[in-house]
Amino acid sequence: MIALALLRTALAVMLLLAAVPGRADESLWAALAEGGHVALMRHARAPGTGDPENFRLGDCSTQRNLDQTGRDQARRTGEAFREHGVQIGRVLSSQWCRCLETAELLRLGEAEPLPPLNSFFADRSRGPAQSDAVRAFLADTDPEGPSLVMVTHQVNITALTGIFPRSGEIVVLRLGGPENFETIGTIEAL
Hints:
Rossmann fold; 6 strands
């Protein structure tokens, strides 16, 4: 009877610890530090949805951009990568200003624009081709090499993983396998 009560208590404690995001995040940070993973990050906080009608790629004044909270969020996220000893091979980004700024503020390496990471929010018909291009890019990435950071948009991440991330949230992918990657979890926005 006492053994059963102890077992139930231990199980309850384990379930509570598993539900604490910080503990789950630690294993994901460790995976990124091992290499062979991708931090697929939704850009930091940029209030609003979509882009204005006069949107033009390369003209940040026509786009939805990071606010100060978003800039601080990106800096905290970059600091977390460094605190966890994560060495990044490349930092790839959508060409949208909010993604490029997020990638730059991480201070993990030069932000390289990768067009397949561009948003297809306004034209969903582009989604399958862009998602296939990202999958092909990941298939050509060395699963034994350093981890990558890819800064993109909610719609892109959802198309690739089925996860609807919040601003600044990171979906961690393990490279390799039959689908070129496996989703192993999410790190909450900082």
